[in-house]
Amino acid sequence: MHTGTTLTQFIIEEQRHIAGATGEFTALLNDVVTAIKTISNAVNKGALIGVMGALETENVQGETQKKLDVITNEMMIRNNEWAGHLAGMASEEMDEVYPIPAQYPLGKYLMVFDPLDGSSNVDINISVGTIFSILRAPVPNRAATAADFLQPGVKQVCAGYALYGSSTMLVLTTGHGVNGFTLDRDIGEFILTHPGMKIPADTKEFAINASNQRFWEAPVQRYVAECLEGSTGPRGRDFNMRWVASMVAEVHRILTRGGIFMYPRDTKDPGKAGKLRLLYEANPMSFIVEQAGGVSSTGYERILDMTPENLHQRVPVILGSKNEVEVVLGYHKQA
Ligand code: AHG
Ligand code: MN
Ligand code: MN
């Protein structure tokens, strides 16, 4: 018999304190969790069930889709479309809004997701994840339009990610702190293992894809150069560097032991403000990071305050330990 708090129990108890809660959100989250367990299983079985490798197709971002990008997108849809909680979904892997099929009732929430984050890591057996964000539909029980999704991140009802690492974890916020759950495969339940996750304010660890260095703007150039100078430079201490190439894994490391993560604005492709997508990567991660005491910014503005312009909009992201992010933001102000 398990002795921990299950995710379902945790959510029901949390909702009890919210006046007017109908249980609908709890039910929606249950379906998200089922999708995540299904994805965890597929990612874990890997080559045994023939899901590795790439397809010939590209997504709306022009990225080659992995088989698992498409399979996990389907798993998110199938598990969440039927119950009547959602008025529409949007995903990294779909150009347009996914309408709830006519045979199912419409609900009062919207969901956006990145079904498989870090999918370039999937064939090499390095951690990947799923990111999701739940918003209120501006008009409940009416088929959602793309415009309905273009709400600033501060409006998120819930944000979470699943990390398919050496264990599968689900990390979640509904705006009352951040809690982490670990999947116990024997009983098929997520158990609360990381209550009240907090990002340490200080860190000596930074994460950035340094192969883009020549494209960075001056403030990021300065910040990274000073980190590399270590104890002999102006920061007066040595730094460590990590780059997993799965945002979920980077954010999870930062939630666990602190750090700073940057996918900054660069001049590589003038048509793109950054690499990561606002609605289903930057916003949910920013909500989680802020709820854990960290900071998340484009370098120039708070990500959660931005009004999205389109479903697949890209943004620069600088997030993590408060004091360290503030150093970088200070350099942006001075520039
Ligand atoms: P996705 O696999 O969903 O397209 O996202 C990958 C993202 C993000 O998770 C990661 O931080 C970044 O892309 C890695 O980019 P590089 O390949 O440029 O390092
Ligand atoms: Mn991603
Ligand atoms: Mn993805």
Return the CATH topology of the largest domain: Fructose-1,6-Bisphosphatase, Chain A, domain 1
Please tell me the CATH architecture of the largest domain by its name.
2-Layer Sandwich
CATH class of the largest domain: Alpha Beta
Number of helices: 8
Distance between the termini: 58 Å
Compute the number of strand runs: 16
**How much helix, percentage-wise, in residues?**
25-40%
Q: Which structural category fits the helices and strands?
A: alpha+beta
Rounded average pLDDT: 96
Which ligands does the model contain, each kind named once?
2,5-anhydro-1,6-di-O-phosphono-D-glucitol, manganese (II) ion
| Uncertain runs | none
Order of secondary-structure elements: HHEEHEEEHEEEEEHEHEEHEEEH
Give the overall form: globular
Radius of gyration: 19 Å
How is the quaternary structure best described? single chain
> CATH superfamily of the largest domain, called what?
Fructose-1,6-Bisphosphatase, subunit A, domain 1
The neighbouring-strand order within the major sheet is 3-4-5-6-7-8-9
Task: Give an account of the 3D structure.
With 335 residues, the chain is α+β, with helices and mostly antiparallel strands. It has two domains: 188 residues, Fructose-1,6-Bisphosphatase, subunit A, domain 1 (Fructose-1,6-Bisphosphatase, Chain A, domain 1, 2-Layer Sandwich); 130 residues, 3-Layer(aba) Sandwich (D-Maltodextrin-Binding Protein, domain 2). It contains eight helices and 16 strands. The strands form four sheets. It has a seven-stranded mixed beta sheet, with helices on both faces. Strands 11-10-12-16-14 form a five-stranded mixed beta sheet, sandwiched between helices. The protein has a two-stranded antiparallel ribbon with strand order 1-2. A hairpin with a 4-residue loop joins strand 8 and strand 9. The termini are far apart. The protein binds 2,5-anhydro-1,6-di-O-phosphono-D-glucitol and manganese (II) ion (MN) (2 copies).
